């Protein structure tokens, strides 16, 4: 069948022809189908039985253009193949944090997957001031499992090179190269500046050669450092949560790139949640006071703890997977029979370099979310233009310090201290 962007009606007909989904959904005449996509690129449908709420699936279909902009920004549907493949690979590496793929048809760019019924998008939860007790543990596990097992530290050299070749994602990487690493750092037509953002803050960033150089260096690392299969778009809108579970969705930007890119995007989005609470906690007003009475840890302190625990948990788990793998195979990336001191020195230097990369990428992501095309709701939805701009200025200050100082930070507490100073 030739590709067709589906509507609720045509999707119902499509689903009737897929035996595994028929079985799962039961009575096809009693289905509710609603389009719920809130992302920038694709159609997303919830499909559920009216008679049995346990029977439901999510259907995601790629459109042949960038949804955020419209048909004037064409895009191939290749990304659906990338996403389906990545969901399967990540699901095998970390099943507890990845929705299960139930059906995939490349010709329709269509993925049916496990419906996360009892979960919300993390970004929304963080705006609303909700804490999640397992969040940092789960996200650090997800990143350690997916990123370690895609790398040369685990795969054979041949398997790794095959994997690199099989996962090129030229178009979506180009979006990142332009919209994260290039346009936000110049006065580009696609940039969107918030109405009260002081021009001085903008010019300060755009006119600093050190910032331009640092952004170009991070872009180079992104384009040339094929370390592991990345999620590629690991912001807080790609995470779904509740009090017990954490799932990572939407890996359509997956490709072989630098490990620090996934880590850095996630850290940046947690930091953006942190800075934006200067507005949201005031808005929550009485509720915030009540929450504070119940919970002695202020919400922003909790957010900074997540930043610290995500990095420390990731570094610790990644290193532990690495050491355990070397021990079980009796060899290492360095070769056979290396002494423990050399092995641990190499691991420490490796993780320190991933840390610097992560901070550089976090800086780029924060600049891009402030000046670039795609915004984040925790800041862009602040209706008071002055308050919004104030948070954006702080965000840019933090971004600049991370980007320029990325190799100077020795540990994550220096980063959380800096975030506090930027408020
Ligand atoms: P896009 O690539 O367009 O950003 P996403 O995969 O992020 O699409 O999905 C858009 C939205 O659809 C998500 O923000 C979430 O609200 C919802 N969604 C996507 N996948 C699922 C799922 N498996 N279960 C529940 N909701 C989902
Ligand atoms: Mg998305
Ligand atoms: Mg699963
Ligand atoms: Mg997406």
From TrEMBL:
Residue span(s) of domain Aminoglycoside phosphotransferase: 33-273
GO BP: methionine biosynthetic process
Transmembrane regions: none
EC number: 2.7.1.100
GO MF, any single term: S-methyl-5-thioribose kinase activity
Gene3D superfamilies listed in its UniProt record: 3.90.1200.10, Phosphorylase Kinase, domain 1
Keyword Nucleotide-binding: yes
Keyword Nucleotide-binding: yes
Keywords, ordered alphabetically: ATP-binding, Kinase, Nucleotide-binding, Transferase
One Pfam family it belongs to: APH
Subunit structure, as described in the record: Homodimer.
Annotated family: Belongs to the methylthioribose kinase family.
Protein name: S-methyl-5-thioribose kinase
Record organism: Rhodoferax antarcticus ANT.BR
Taxonomic path: Bacteria, Pseudomonadati, Pseudomonadota, Betaproteobacteria, Burkholderiales
């Amino acid at each position: 069948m030739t590709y067709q962007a589906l509507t609720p009606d045509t999707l119902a007909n499509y689903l009737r022809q897929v035996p595994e989904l028929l079985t799962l959904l039961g009575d096809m005449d009693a289905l509710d189908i609603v389009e719920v996509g809130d992302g920038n690129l694709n159609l997303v449908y919830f499909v559920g039985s009216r008679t049995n709420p346990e029977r439901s699936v999510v259907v995601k279909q790629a459109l042949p253009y960038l949804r955020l902009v419209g048909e004037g920004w064409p895009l191939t549907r290749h990304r659906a193949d990338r996403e389906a493949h990545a969901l399967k690979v990540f699901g095998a590496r970390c099943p507890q944090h990845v929705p299960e793929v139930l059906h995939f048809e490349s010709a329709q760019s269509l993925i049916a997957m496990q419906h996360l019924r009892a979960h919300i998008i993390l970004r929304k939860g963080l705006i609303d001031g909700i804490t999640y007790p397992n969040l940092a543990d789960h996200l650090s596990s997800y990143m350690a499992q997916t990123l370690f097992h895609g790398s040369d530290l685990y795969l054979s050299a041949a398997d790794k090179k095959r994997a690199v070749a099989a996962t090129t994602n030229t178009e979506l990487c180009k979006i990142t190269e332009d919209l994260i690493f290039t346009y936000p750092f110049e006065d580009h037509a696609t940039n969107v500046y918030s109405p009260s953002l002081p021009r001085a803050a903008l010019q300060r960033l755009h006119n600093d050669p050190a910032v331009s150089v640092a952004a170009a260096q991070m872009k180079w690392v992104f384009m040339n450092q094929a370390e592991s299969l990345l999620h590629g778009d690991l912001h807080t809108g790609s995470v779904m949560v509740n009090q017990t579970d954490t799932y990572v969705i939407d890996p359509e930007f997956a490709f072989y790139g630098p490990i620090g890119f996934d880590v850095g995007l996630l850290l940046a989005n947690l930091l953006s949640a942190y800075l934006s609470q200067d507005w949201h906690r005031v808005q929550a007003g009485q509720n915030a006071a009540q929450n504070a009475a119940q919970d002695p840890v202020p919400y922003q302190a909790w957010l900074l703890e997540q930043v610290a625990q995500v990095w420390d948990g990731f570094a610790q788990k990644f290193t532990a997977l690495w050491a355990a793998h070397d021990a079980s195979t009796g060899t290492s990336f360095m070769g056979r029979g290396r002494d423990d001191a050399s092995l641990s020195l190499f691991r420490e230097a490796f993780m320190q370099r991933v840390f610097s990369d992560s901070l550089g990428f976090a800086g780029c992501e924060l600049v891009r979310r402030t000046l670039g095309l795609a915004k984040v709701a925790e800041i862009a939805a602040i209706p008071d233009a002055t308050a919004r701009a104030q948070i954006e200025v702080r965000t840019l200050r933090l971004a600049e310090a991370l980007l320029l100082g990325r190799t100077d930070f020795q540990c994550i507490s220096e980063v959380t201290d800096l975030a506090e100073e930027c408020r």
